Amino acid sequence: VSLLNKQGIMKCVSLLLLVVAVVVVSASKDNWIVGFSAQNISPSEGESCCLGGYGECLCSRQQTGVHDPIFARAFYLKVGTEEMVFVSIDTVGMSNRFIDDCISNSSAYISDPNRIIMSSTHSHSSPDFAGIWGGVGAEYRKFAISQVVQAIAVAKTSAVEAQLYIAKGEHDQTSNRRGWDSTDYTVLTLWATDINTGDLIGMLVNFGAHPTILGSDNTMVSRDWVNGLIVTLEEKLGADTVMYVNAAQGDVSASRSGLTGDGFDKCFEYGENLAQTVLKSLDNSTSGAVSIVYPEVYLVFSFWTQCVTNNLFIAAANSLGLCSNYIFRDAKDGECPHGKLELPPKLVDTQLAYIRLGQQVQLAVLPGEATTRMAIDGVGATGFNSSTDAIKESMTAPYQGVFGLSTDFLGYFVPEDEWNKPKHDANPDNSDYEESVSLGGDQANVWIRDRVKSLIA
C-alpha cells in the first residue's frame, strides 16, 4: 500500500492486502465508519494564556503571539453500535476538570463519556489547560472547549464508510534523560480511507518524545516539533488530516543531534524527520509493515481513587489559583499512609483504558507520562537490571501502542525498581526529577502497569 500521493490515496493496494480486504468485508456485516476534524484553538493577540511546562506554579510565560497555530483534532471511529473518538489537543496538559467540561459539553454527539479519549500533545510552548503554570483566561478556556466540541461534532457528522489501516516504523532520534540505554522507538500510524473513493479521511501518529526543543525563554505559542510533523504530513497527504498522540515519553527527549538552525527551525526539522519515518512506513512495498484493521472495537476502562502524597502537589492543590482546575478531595486519617508526608494527603479519581482494534492493534491508554521501562522490556544500562514485565509484554497483537497523557494529566509514572527519591543510585543518571513531578510514592507498577495489564484481552 502506498500513501505517497494526495490524489487517489489508497487506490493502489498490494495483492496481499487486497485479498485481506475481501476477507474483512465479507466476514463482517459492518464496515468502519470514520470521520476526522481539526479546529483551531489558537489564542487571540493579547488573550490571557500562560504557557505551561517550565518553571513554578506561576505565570512566568504569558503568550506574546502565535508562531504556529494550535488545534483540537478528533478521529471518530464506529463499528455497528460501538463508537469512540480520539481527541488530540495542542496543550501541555489538561486538568480533570477541563477534560470533564469538554466531554460533558459533547454529550449531544457522544452520549457515553467513556467513549471520548482526550490526549495532550504536551508542547511546553502551548496553553496551560491544567492550571498548574498560571492557566488561561476564562474566555479563552470557554473558546477552547467549544472548539473541542466542534471537532468531535464535525468528526462524527462527517463520518463515512471507511477502510482502516495500521503501520509501524522506528525512529531512534531520541535520548533517555534518566540514562537508560534506549527508549521505545516505535512509531505507530493509524489511518482511514473512504471505502468508495480511497481518499484519506484521517491519520493518527503515536510516538514518544517530549516536544521540548523550544526552551523556557520562548513565549510564542507553538506545537514545538509536532508542528513539523503535522505540516510535513499534511503537505503530502492533505490539509487537516493528521493528529499526534504521545507514547511512553516520560523520560524521553527529542535528540538535537544532527539538527541544524536554531529554535523553531530546529523544531521543524525534527518533526519533518519523524514525518519521513511515518511516510516510509506507509509504503508497504518497501516497509512490509502495513495491515488492514478488522472492523471491531473493544474498549474497557479501569476507574480508581488515587492517593496524592507528593507534598508539592498537595501544597499546590491547597493554594488558591494553583492547580485549582483539578478536582481533589481530602483523604481520611490513615487512608494514604506515607512516610514522607508533611501535609494532609489528597485523593483524586482517575482512570486508564485498554483498547483493541480488530485483532491487529492493542493500545494502553494512560493518565500521565509513563517512563520507558514501564512500557517495554529490555531497557537497562551497565550495572543495572534491564526492564521486565512491562506493559507491552502482555500484548500479543502485531501492533502495540501506549497512549500517554490521555484521560488525565497526573505527572510521571516511574517503575518501583528505578524510583529514586531519596537518591539511592536507582537509575544511571541518579536523577529524581520525574519523581518530584509525580503523585508521590514508588508504586506506579501497581497503580498503572498491573492495572492496565489486567484489562488486556
From TrEMBL:
Superkingdom, taxonomy of origin: Eukaryota
Domain Neutral/alkaline non-lysosomal ceramidase N-terminal residues, every copy: 49-240
Region forming the signal peptide: 1-27
Alphabetical keyword list: Signal
InterPro entries: NEUT/ALK_ceramidase_N
Record has Signal as a keyword: yes
Protein name: Neutral/alkaline non-lysosomal ceramidase N-terminal domain-containing protein
